[in-house]
Amino acid sequence: MITDFPIVLSNGQALPSEDLQGKVILVVNVASKCGFTPQYQGLEELYQRYREQGFIVLAFPCNQFSQQEPGSDQEIQQFCELNYGVSFPISRKIEVKGLGADPLYQWLTHEKKGLLGASIKWNFTKFLINRSGQVVARFAPTKKPEQLAQAIEKLLSD
Questions:
Q1: What is the pTM for the complete model shown?
Q2: For residues 59 and 75, what is the distance between their CA atoms, to the nearest angstrom?
Q3: Alpha carbons 78 and 4: distance in angstroms, whole number
Q4: Could you give phi then psi for residue 17, rounded to 5 degrees?
C-alpha cells in the first residue's frame, strides 16, 4: 500500500501516512521545464474539485528525463505555487526509474506496468490509487488531468 512508503515533502517534512489513509490518490512524476508542465494547472483543478471528497494529488519532481527539473526542492515548490497556484503536496526531488528509483516508484511500476513495460518513460506519468491504497490505473503523460475526472469520480463513489 502507498502508506507503506515514507514521503518527504519539498520542505523536508515527512507527509504523515494518515494524510493518505482512505483517500483516492493521484501520483504524478513532474518537471518544471517539460512540454507537459502546463498539466500542473489541470492537476490543481482536479485537487480543488475533489479534495473535499477525499482526493489528493501527490507530485514527485524528477530530473531523469532530459534534465527538465534542474531546480532545488525550494525552487520547484516556488515555481509550482507562483506559476500554477499548486496547493497539493510536492515531494522532494526523487528518481523514478533505474537502480536509484525511489521505493514508492519501484512499487508503483511493479503494480501497474505501462504500454512499454514497467519503467517510467517520461514526466507526468500518472498512477491512480483507490481508497484501500492499491494502484488501479496508470496513465501516459499525454493523458490530460481533466481526462481522469471520470475515473476519479468512480473511485470516490466506491
A1: 0.93
A2: 14
A3: 28
A4: -60, -30
Measured distance CA(125)–CA(28) in Å, rounded: 6
Q: What is the Cα–Cα distance from 134 to 121, expressed in whole angstroms?
A: 22
Gap between the Cα atoms of 20 and 57, Å rounded: 10
Q: What is the pLDDT of residues 49-98, one digit of tens each?
A: 999 999 999 999 999 988 888 889 898 888 888 888 899 999 999 999 98
* CB 60 within 8 Å of CB 96: yes
- The amino acid at residue 127 is F
Residues contacting residue 147 through CB under 8 Å, at least 6 positions apart: 139
- Could you list the active site residues? 34
Q: What number of H helices and E strands is found in the chain?
A: 4, 4
Q: How far, in Å, CA of 63 to CA of 158, rounded? A: 35
